[in-house]
Amino acid sequence: MLETLVGLASQSLEASKALDSTGLMEPLRAGLASADILTRFNIIEILAEFGTTTPGSEYLDSSGILAQIANVVQEEAQQDSLGVTAILKLYGQLGASEHVDFVSLDMKYQILNQLERLLVESMAAIGLIGGNVQNVEWVTQSPCAETFVGVFGSLTRDLKVAWFHSLAQIFSCSPEPSPETEQLVARFYSQLERPDQSPFMARLLVSAKSRTPELAMAALSVLRSLVHFGFGVQKMGADRDAIMFLVERNSQDSHAEKVAKFEIIDTILQTSQNVQSATGTQVLTAEQASRLELIRRQGPFFLRATATVSIQDMAA
């Protein structure tokens, strides 16, 4: 019943107001105040889908529902972890939707501040919100982003996987980034360089070389999104270990890791060519480009032939 009503309300702001005026939308607000955790969880799940539409996000704002939700995070986060998980998903979906003016909602409800207080639980939501090009400037210049960056060194392996995936989403905010978007992402990348730690590229490569597949793939996803930018290719080109890592044929790499490294190489070469065509700037040396081009021609699963000598041949 509620799903049907929400579907109708999603059609237009007028429809949502008309349904609200009849009292049909009241169960949404009542459900948020329910003492039953599962009821509240289900209501928030419905609201998450509703909120990704323009009428839905405007209704959540005008009806006071977002204020109710913010109060749950503020007052009941410890008592209702299931509800908070659903709320973080809702915030992520709001931020990821191109139909929602997330910046305006954040200015009113301090959503990023809420996420900052629950950083470990909210990393996926931060990635979804920052991965929307409409929000990338707002998110990356927020105190939440500073906290997100600063927490990396203290994370466990599993949480690093989530952190890398969120970072990759932010870097992937636009499939064809404009110069302005690249400047924003480059500025955010500079925050990852901490004076008391080794360069971020070195720390990223440590994880990319991990024998834990989930961690390695998460780090590779960051590299794959980073090299869509000219500055990202320059960062890799300036790090000898980064290029060596890509061209090295490691028999211990999984199928997925080999494919990911190949895709990174292919993207590096494409980005390098695009930058040179647009600006005349070479972001790779001729030697680096040649080595990467060889790998691209050979494909991700190339194995160098090795001579084998039988015992009979040796005896002869």
TrEMBL record:
One of its GO terms (cellular component) is cytosol. Gene3D superfamilies: Leucine-rich Repeat Variant. One of its GO terms (biological process) is proteasome assembly. Pfam families: Proteasom_PSMB. This is 26S proteasome non-ATPase regulatory subunit 5. It comes from Lunasporangiospora selenospora.
